[in-house]
Design brief:
4-stranded mixed β-sheet; 10 helices; globular
């Protein structure tokens, strides 16, 4: 069912209408087949690029859509309700552009950002490592300055769009000064000495490639350093605050899809002479699912509106990520229960929704990390 939204402008209303059209006509019918085949829909991202979706929250002067985060996140939600791989991919791309857009020099932004936002290129965010996930400050990939270049050596892990991205926003160590020794680089996907490992075999989001990245003396020009040396962890954490709102919106989209499926099924499935949606036990289950979806949507919109107003929103982003992804896990699991035996088969998307929901509680900061960040803000 179509979500009733309160949007700030007529332009935003038109944008959400276009999003629903693309979701309905280009995404929904392909999702199950491409996920089963573990096929990455690169053509879909080109279509989104042509439609102006790959730069929605960034400035018009650099080719962006100048949309408030409140609107951009609702676009993410709509796309994710049709196909999670696409919603998560757009969120990752947007986060990959964040460091350059907010910490790059005017010259860097004018040189690279228009192409990054223009629709032809797709980005990836390279922070995690095999032994540096939640503890990002312990990363060991090293960037050694050599004249007007950096030689980068090391390995990254769990990189969404690994091997298919056109650029990587990379965090690497430029000194041994702990958290203050990390720097941020914009790395072209064709850089010599950069390679991707085989895709991980995942339980969900199988259409989205997740790979390790290997840097073997990869040479990156010094002018691709974003911010100052040592600013990398600060930049990474700033980007993650915004990215967590994106993942929250994706989670709400997935939960909404599961709720819609469950309601439609419950209306059509008859037992004891009437539709199962008329039984109070089913009514209460569906009511709890609806309440979880609406509460999660309100949490990410609160964070987005604070961000758009220039207010601190880090704690709200952690709350939204925690609430929305936990809700997605619960709602998708309940959707399988509503469908009963049918929910456990691949004839319906409920089992796929449930598998896809799990990773939302893990990436861009596990939900245990979100609880830690929320508690820290209370002290």
């Amino acid at each position: 069912m179509s979500v009733q939204r309160l949007l700030p402008t007529p332009e935003a209303t038109d944008l959400l209408a276009l999003t629903r059209e693309i979701a309905r006509d280009e995404l929904a019918g392909r999702a199950a087949g491409d996920e089963a085949a573990e096929k990455f829909p690169r053509d879909v991202f080109r279509l989104l690029g042509e439609s102006g979706f790959l730069g929605l929250p960034y400035a018009e002067e650099h080719g962006g859509g100048a949309q408030p985060y409140e609107v951009y996140l609702q676009v993410l939600e709509e796309l994710s309700s049709a196909w999670m791989t696409v919603g998560v991919g757009l969120s990752v791309h947007t986060m990959s552009c964040f460091p350059l857009a907010h910490f790059g020099t005017p010259e860097q932004r004018s040189r690279w950002l228009p192409d990054m936002l223009g629709g032809d290129l797709l980005g990836a965010y390279a922070l995690s490592e095999p032994h540096a996930g939640s503890d990002a400050a312990s990363l060991s990939t090293r960037a050694a300055r050599q004249d007007d270049e950096y030689a980068i050596t090391g390995a990254k892990a769990w990189i969404t769009h690994g091997g298919v991205a056109d650029f990587y926003t990379l965090m690497a160590r430029t000194s041994d000064d702990g958290p203050r020794g990390i720097s941020c680089f914009l790395v072209d996907g064709t850089t010599s000495g950069l390679s991707a490992g085989p895709p991980e075999h995942k339980m969900g989001l199988t259409g989205s490639p997740t790979t390790p990245l290997y840097f073997e003396g990869a040479r990156v020009a010094a002018d691709r350093l974003v911010g100052e040396e040592g600013d990398g962890l600060k930049i990474a954490l700033c980007a993650l605050d915004s990215g967590r709102l994106g993942i929250a919106a994706c989670a709400v989209g997935l939960a909404q899809a599961a709720l819609d499926l469950a309601v439609d099924y419950a209306k059509q499935r008859n037992q004891f002479g009437r539709p199962i949606i008329e039984f109070q036990g089913m009514e209460f289950l569906l009511a709890d699912m609806a309440a979880a979806v609406q509460s999660a949507r309100a949490s990410y919109l609160d964070g987005a509106r604070r961000r758009d107003a220039g207010l601190p929103f880090g704690q709200q982003a952690s709350v939204a990520k925690l609430v929305a992804t936990d809700a997605a896990m619960k709602v998708t699991t309940d959707a399988v229960q509503v469908l009963g035996g049918a929910g456990y088969t691949r004839d319906f998307p409920a089992e796929r929704y449930m598998r896809e929901a799990k990773v939302l509680q893990i990436f861009e900061g596990t939900n245990q990390i979100q609880r830690m960040l929320i508690a820290r803000g209370l002290k």
